């Protein structure tokens, strides 16, 4: 098992810091063995949304559907690394069930925190070949 805790730069930081974070995340995952069960607790500081049309294996159908640019690049990165966000596959779809942070001024809920995994399909079954 390979456990990681990660904190992405918030939206007030320069985009180069976010790009460096994504590169570092990729380097971290690349350092693992293919047989490792990788689990990453991440404050992604970006809205990745949900899989609405089957376009990404990294996200499931549940969660906060809002997407922003940082969340989109984070989603693309985790998908390229063979990771998925477990919270978007499980739970009940009710108001604020997947919200992890509320904006203090707008009171709008965001799903910024995730548990990412590699080594299991997000439905809990082993991936092909395991």
Care to describe what's here?
The structure is a single chain. By secondary structure, this protein is of the alpha+beta class. The chain has a single domain (2-118), classed as Endonuclease/exonuclease/phosphatase (Deoxyribonuclease I, Chain A, 4-Layer Sandwich). Helix content is 22%, strand content 18%. It contains 2 helices and 6 strands, in the order E-H-E-H-E-E-E-E. The chain has a 4-stranded mixed beta sheet, covered by helices on one side. The chain has a two-stranded antiparallel ribbon with strand order 4-5. Strand 4 and strand 5 form a beta hairpin. It is globular.
What features would you highlight for this structure?
Deoxyribonuclease I, Chain A; two-stranded antiparallel ribbon; 2 helices; 22% helix; globular
Q: What is the makeup of the main sheet? A: 4 strands, mixed
- Distance from first to last alpha carbon: 15 Å
Q: How are strands sequenced across the largest beta sheet? A: 1-2-6-3
Q: What name does CATH use for the topology?
A: Deoxyribonuclease I, Chain A
Which parts are unreliable, with pLDDT below 50 for 5 consecutive residues or more?
none
- The oligomeric state is single chain
Strand content: 15-25%
| CATH H-level homologous superfamily name | Endonuclease/exonuclease/phosphatase
What is the radius of gyration computed over CA atoms, rounded to a whole number of angstroms?
Answer: 14 Å
Contiguous helical run count: 2
How many structural domains in the coordinates?
1
Helical proportion? 10-25%
For the record, the CATH class is Alpha Beta
Helix and strand element order: EHEHEEEE
CATH architecture: 4-Layer Sandwich
Q: Label the structural class.
A: alpha+beta
